[in-house]
Amino acid sequence: MSNNSEDPFANMDDFEPTLKKVSLDPDQRKHLAERSAELGFPSRQQPLEEKPVVDGRSLRRTGRVAQMNIKVTPEIKVEFFKQATGKPAGAFIEELLETYKRSQDI
């Protein structure tokens, strides 16, 4: 490797550091966000006035934490999900078991 080229960092006399970021007060920040949205540049940040979005998964907690894998024929699988329409599979299995238990008491 030859040393024929000059070192680009040898002379740093014209180097100027970047300026510190300017802090905006809340009114300026709000005006800037509104104007940006008007021009089609919406902010990626969540607006301060709105409450954070609740993760829907926490609203559907059922206490079902154990997994159960079973093998069935394709026909049974189709029929199972057809009958369980609109319900989670775990809830439908619970209903099936309750119905089975009631039928055994007869």
| Uncertain parts | none
Structural class: mainly alpha
Number of DSSP E strands: 0
Count, helices: 3
Distance between the termini: 93 Å
The coarse silhouette is elongated
What is the overall pLDDT average? 82
Your description of this structure?
The protein has 106 residues and is mainly α. It has a domain at 68-106. It is built from three helices and no strands. It has helices at residues 26-38, 74-83, 89-104. The mean pLDDT is 82.
What features would you highlight for this structure?
106 residues, mainly alpha, 3 helices
What's this, in brief?
This protein is an all-alpha fold. It has helices spanning 26-38, 74-83, 89-104.
Topology:
Layout: H1 26-38, H2 74-83, H3 89-104
